[in-house]
Amino acid sequence: MACFLVSTAEAIVVTVAAKIVKNKEMSEESLKLEKNAETEIKQEKKLPWSKKLMILAYLLWGGAFLLCYEHIWHGEVVPWFPFLTAMNDPGDTAEMLHEMGTIGVTMAVIVTVVWAVMMIVADKIMSRPEKEPEKAAA
Amino acid sequence: MTLLICVFAAIIATVKWYKRKDDTLMLGIPCILFWGASLMWLGDAIFGYAEDGAAFFEPEAAEMLNDAYLGLSVVALGLILWLAILLIKDPKGIVKASLKKKAEQ
C-alpha cells in the first residue's frame, strides 16, 4: 500500500548522512594535505564512506521510485491529496501502517544487508594486489 | 513476474556495465535502479510466499499477464529515467555540441 515510503525515508536519511560524511572527508583531506605537504600521502585502499553511503542511497532511491510507479499502477498512490488511497479509510490506514511496518521494513533491511555485503566484498577486491597487464590480458 | 522481469533487466544492465570500455553511457544508473527495485520486490515476494505458500508460484493467467505488463513498463520507465539523466549530464558533450551546431545554423 505504501511500503516504498519506508525505503524513501531511509534514502533521505542516508543521502543527508552521505553529504555530511563527504564534507567531513574533504576537510580531513585538506588537513592531511597541509600537514603532510612534503611527505607522500598514503593511498587508501578502500572506498570512502561517502561513496559507500551514496551507493546505498541510489539503491534505495531507485527501488523506491520504481515501486512508487507500481503503486500508481495499482491505484494505491494518486496525484491528489492525501495521495495515498488508504488514507481515506481508517481501516485501510491501519492496514497500510501494518504493511509499512512489515513489508516496508523488510524491503529496507534486505537492501541494506545486500549493500553491506557488497561493500565488504568491494573492500576485499580493492585490497587485492594490482594485476600485471600480461596476466590480466590472459 | 514483475520481479523476474526486473531481475533480468538488472542482470543485463550489470553485464553491459562490466563489459563497458568507459563510463560515458553511465551504465551504473540502470544497474542500481533495477537491483534496488528487484531487492524490494524480493521482500514483497517473501511476504507473498509466506501468505499464499506454493500457490504464490501458480498465479492466474490474467494476473500473470498484468504483472508482466507492469514489469515491462517498469523497465521502460527505468530506461527512460537513465536516458534522461544521461542526456542531461551529457558526459560526451554530444548534446551540447549538437545544440551549439543548431544555434550556429
Q: How would you sum up this structure, described in words?
A:
The complex is a heterodimer of chains A (138) and B (105). The radius of gyration of chain A is 21 Å and the shape is elongated. Chain A has one domain. The mean pLDDT of chain A is 87. Helices cover 72% and strands 0% of the residues of chain A. Chain A has helices spanning 4-35, 49-73, 90-126, 133-137. Chain A contains four helices and no strands. With 138 residues, chain A is mainly alpha-helical. With 105 residues, chain B is mainly α. Chain B has one domain (2-97). Chain B contains four helices and no strands. Chain B has helices at residues 2-19, 28-52, 61-89, 94-104. In chain B, helix 1 (2-19) packs antiparallel against helix 2 (28-52) and helix 2 (28-52) packs antiparallel against helix 3. The radius of gyration of chain B is 18 Å and the shape is elongated. Classes of the chains: A mainly alpha (138), B mainly alpha (105). Chain A binds chain B through residues 3-4, 7, 55, 58-67, 69-70, 73, 102-103, 106-107, 109-111, 114, and chain B through 2, 6, 32-44, 46-47, 70, 73-74, 77-78, 81.
- Provide a count of the helices of chain A: 4
Number of domains of chain A: 1
The radius of gyration of chain A is: 21 Å
Note the main sheet of chain A: none
Low-confidence stretches of chain B: none
Radius of gyration of chain B: 18 Å
Strand content of chain B: under 5%
H/E series of chain B: HHHH
Output the structural class of chain B: mainly alpha
Tell me, briefly, the overall form of chain A: elongated
Helix content of chain A: over 70%
Mean residue pLDDT of chain A: 87
| Oligomeric state | heterodimer
Report the biggest beta sheet of chain B as strand number plus sense, adding barrel if it closes. Answer: none
The string of secondary-structure elements of chain A, in order, is HHHH
What count of helical segments of chain B does DSSP give? 4
- The computed structural class of chain A is mainly alpha
- Roughly how much helix do the residues of chain B carry, as a percent range? over 70%
- The number of distinct structural domains of chain B comes to 1
Strand residues, percent of chain A: under 5%
